[in-house]
Amino acid sequence: MKASLTLAAALTALAAPAEAQHLSPADVPAIHPTKESTLQELLGQNAGLRSDRMSIALFTLAPGSAYPASHNITSEEVFLIRSGTGTVWLNATPTKVAPGDLIRIPAGIDHKIEASRQGPLSFYAISAPPFRSDDTVPAR
C-alpha cells in the first residue's frame, strides 16, 4: 500500500503544472563572448530560468561589429531584433534587419549578424533544443 501511495504522489507531482517564473535581463550578468559583444543567458540549461527544451539569450553588438559566422548542428535558432539595425547573413545571403524583425535559422545554415555603424544592435537568440557549445561550429 505504501509503495502505491508513493507512486501516486510522484505521478501527481509530475502532472502538476509548472510554476510561472519571472526574470529581468537587468538581473542577469553579462559575459563578453567577443571583444565587442555581450551575452546574457536568460533561459536554458544553465541559465537563471532553467529549461531543457529551449534557450533564450540576449546579445548586444557594438556599432559596426559582427558576431562570428557559425552554424548549429541540431538546434533551430530564431533571432528577434530588439533594438538597432544591422545585417544578417544566411548562407552568405545578406538581409537588413530592424527592431521587431524575426529571422529563422534552420540547423546547418551558416549565419552571421552585424550591427550597423550607426549604433548597437540588440537581439534575442532563441534556440530549440537549447543552446549547447558543442552544437555550434564555425562557418564552413
From TrEMBL:
SUPFAM superfamilies: RmlC-like cupins (SSF51182). It comes from the Bacteria. InterPro entries: Cupin_2, GPI/OXD, RmlC-like_jellyroll, RmlC_Cupin_sf. Keywords: Metal-binding, Signal. The keyword Signal applies. Residues 58-126 form the Cupin type-2 domain. Residues 1-20 form the signal peptide. Pfam families: Cupin_2. This is Cupin domain-containing protein. It comes from Acetobacter musti.
